[in-house]
Every structure is written in structure tokens, then in C-alpha cells.
Amino acid sequence: MAKKDVPPRWDRRMQQRLARGEAAALGELYDRFASLVHGLAHRVLGDESAADGITRDVFVHVWEHPERYDPKEGPMRTWVATLTHRLAVQRLRATETAALAQGTGGSAEELERRVRRASVAARADYIVTSMPSSLRAALDLAYFQRRDYRQTAADLGVTEDEARRRLRLGLQLLSTAHETGTPPEPGSAA
Questions:
Q1: pLDDT computed for residue 106 by the predictor
Q2: Does pLDDT of 105 surpass 80?
Q3: Domain-located, residue 190
Q4: What is the total count of domains within the chain?
């Protein structure tokens, strides 16, 4: 098994290619992560054109600053998602602060509640898209298709114990969406 501090080979190569200025690398990165970036931005901002702008900003930042990715901090996917979240929250705060200044928005407390809700929702989306497909399939059957664990087991072709295990693990992962940490500072490795 690979050491924990050694990033996946693809991440290392991608960072090196971006640092060399390979436009094809940016295209490959975009193909791989654009839907993740756009989805997270849209989840936070609730606006298609704003999400398009954040998507553009994220890939411009990655292109201009590939050295800010620190492989020791985790996979490139996580770095890109964290960057997306940070930029989207900054945009949301700027938009809402401007509305507050003009007297057309809610209170500062309401702004922070919206930011927290959007952050939790975006984190939950990221967790679901990042979890193994076996866990995602079990959660989909149980919660969106309203199957109990026995029906889920039958649909997945696994034992009932395995279905319960998958559901439990999936829910444990999702429960971390409410955990809050200090957001990365602008210009940091995230």
C-alpha cells in the first residue's frame, strides 16, 4: 500500500504538467473536475451564471497557481473542491454584504446562516459524489427510492448485514457534512 503522504500518481503528474504550462493538462483537469466545481458553486450560490463565474475563476486560479496544491494535504480533487467552496462563499458574502449595504438584504446573522446552510449542503454533495459507488447506491435505494435495508440488500444482491453496513458507513460519512472547521485563508495551499 502507498504511503499516506505520497499523492496519487495522477495528481503529481497533473501538478507538474500545469507548472510547465501545458494547456492540455488544464483541459484534462477541466474535463475531470468541471462538473464537481460547477455543482458545488451552484449549490452554494444558487445561481447558474454565478456558478459559471466561479468555475472559470477556479480553473484560472489552478492554471496560474499550480504550486499552491500541496500533495501532502490530500488529493487534487479535494484541493479543487476546497478552492471552489472558498471562492463561492466569498462571492456569496460579497453579494449579500452589498445587498445589506443597500438595504435590500436581510441581516448579517441571516447572511451567516445562509452561508452555513450552503456550506453544509455543498459539503454533503461533495461527500456523496466522493463516496464509493457501493455506499452511494445503498443510500440512493434507501433514502430516495424508500427501500428498507432488506429491499436494499435484495436490489444490490448483497446480504442484509452488508446492506446495513453500507447504509451505516454512508450515513457516517454524510454526518461529517455538519462538521465545521476554519476555512482556509485566501492564498493558502487550499
A1: 61
A2: no
A3: no
A4: 2
